[in-house]
Amino acid sequence: LAGLGIVLPITLIVSAFAQLIGMGGAPRAAICMGEGHYEKAEEILGNCTVMLIGASAALFVFFQALCDPLLMLFGASEQTLPYASTYLRIYLLGTFFVMVAMGLSAFITNQGYAKTSMAATCLGAAMNLVLDPIFIFGLQMGVAGAAWATVISQGASALMILLFLTGKHGYIHIRRKWFRLKRKLVLSILSLGLSPFSMSITECVVQLTYNISIVQYGDLYVALQSILFSLIQIVWMPLNGFAQGASPIISYNYGAGRLDRARQTFRLLLLVDVIFAVGVVGFIELFPAAVLHIFSGNAELHALGTLPLRVYILGMAAMGVQSACQNTFLALGQAKISMFLACLRKLFLIWPLALILPHLFGLGSGACFWPSPSPISPPPR
Question: For the whole model, what pTM was predicted?
Answer without folding.
Answer: 0.70
